[in-house]
Amino acid sequence: MADEAKAKGNAAFSSGDFTAAVNHFSEAIDLAPTNHVLYSNRSAAYASLNKYSEALADANKTVEIKPDWSKGYSRLGAAHCGLGQYNDAVSAYKKGLEIDPNNEALKSGLADAQAGAARSRAEPPPMNPFGDAFSGPEMWAKLTADPSTRAFLQQPDFVKMMQEIQKNPSNLNLYLKDQRVMQALGVLLNVKLHGGAGAEDEEMPESPPERKQPEPRKEEKKLEPQPEPEPEPMEVNEEEREAKKRRAEAIKEKEAGNAAYKKKDFDTAIQRYTKAIELDDEDISFILNRAATYLEMGQFEDCIKDCEKAVERGRELRSDFKMIAKALTRRGTAYVKMAKCSKDFEPAIESFQKALTEHRNPDTLKKLNDAEKAKKDLEQQEYYDPKLADEEREKGNEYFKQQKYPEAIKQYTEALRRNPKDAKAYSNRAACYTKLGAMPEGLKDAEKCIELDPTFAKGYTRKGAVQFFMKEYEKALETYQEGLKHDRSNQELLDGVRRCVEQINKASRGDLSPEELKERQAKGMQDPEIQNILQDPVMRQVLTDFQENPKAAQEHTKNPMVMSKIQKLVSAGIVQLR
């Protein structure tokens, strides 16, 4: 199933196994190739693997299938950013914001893309004399062909370094100390660098004179002047020390706040967290802790303000997405606590959904499901009106008398929305379904009617009628008899019993036509109760005795339980008694 593969992909993505996530999402796409969400999820997985070309292809497919879905443009923008195509990313994010102007992820992505575009215009990459050596697939072909670099391609860190250099040749300066990179550079430029020369120098017999040169080196070290602009680094270090000191003090305040929180001294905790925020505004955990304290104090509006501040500041600082998700989840929890009607759950549900786009956490998912259920229950309670339900049921009765059964069903359904515990509405709708030949729906409504009011005789007549039409005569008889326990003089129930007995006796006498017998046998063999009787070793022996051992069969007839099962087999046309 596509949903199962999707769920596995989501789990793998959440655990950081992006390769497995890609595989699961690909499996789901094979099963449901028009599901835009699957392409969106696989795009995110590819992006996490830095495979931005594949991510871009999936993002394009997402918006192609579902052009009015804002998240598709978020995926598209992220893929373009990964490829350094900032102008295209800006266009993608803007299209998404046209659909969903309040989407925080799109706003944040647009800001990143615009900043990237500005950087690319303001700071053009410096020309690198080795740039051509790293361009195109020829680089990998040369490294694979040369025996001295072929083994390096099996080393992930080397491959990653070469990918970074290929993406931006200026990055070569970052990896010049790595001998493997120098070896690869030599291969790409068709020259020998460092390694070859060193080897030749070591083999030369006349190298001792070169070793006796420590003095000039020492002199060079002595002659090196101390850097003159010492005051500036001292000032920078002083600032760093001050910042570290403030951070340390902020952490102490946070720990003191945590201790007060555990003791339920919430006022002190608020003071401590506030002091921590003043000392260090680059750690949103302080804001989140204060929000949690406000939540415990029942100051939900203050909690929501802190959560929104944490999200905003977290975006500015590029904080961990899990922290952003935690802030959004906490905001949703505050909204749930404040909810008084079904509509109040909408901002909570929105907050939980946004949190899940940042980080798919099981606790957040449960909170979302609970909020959606609470909203639905409240909507039902708000819609509840027994008086209007009775009016809708009466309208359904009028349609029923006119034999307009679909219209009657519509009115009975509305009556049940107004009053879900109206047994009569279920009974009447069951009658409509029976008239229309929708037996499973009719049976379900009749059973619900009996569940709501076990003493209501109509529920049993409705259920018995459905079972009778389905040719389940034994079950129908049991239903009618159960109804008679509550209303012994009910004529409909008595007539139902009589009709069922006639049909059962008809089978017992062997009066069924070949077609009727064949149909009844086929239906009986599908009945789990009949299957269990036939598989029972004791009953199989009883049936054998009825055929081969009349004396034993006579004894079996004295057992009510055995005869009850025999009667069920006879009614189903499986066994015939002569």
UniProtKB/TrEMBL annotation:
It comes from Pyrus ussuriensis x Pyrus communis. The keyword Chloroplast does not apply. GO terms for molecular function: Hsp90 protein binding. Residues 227-240 have a biased composition (Acidic residues). Residues 196-251 are annotated as: Disordered. TPR repeats lie at residues 2-35, 36-69, 70-103, 250-283, 389-422, 423-456, 457-490. The lineage of its organism: Eukaryota, Viridiplantae, Streptophyta, Embryophyta, Tracheophyta. Keywords: Acetylation, Chaperone, Cytoplasm, Nucleus, Phosphoprotein, Repeat, Stress response, TPR repeat. It is found in: Cytoplasm; Nucleus. Transmembrane segments: none annotated. One of its GO terms (cellular component) is cytoplasm. Residues 136-175, 527-566 form the STI1 domain. This is Hsp70-Hsp90 organizing protein 3-like. SUPFAM superfamilies: TPR-like. InterPro entries: STI1/HOP_DP, STI1_HS-bd, TPR-like_helical_dom_sf, TPR_rpt. Residues 208-225 have a biased composition (Basic and acidic residues). It comes from the Eukaryota.
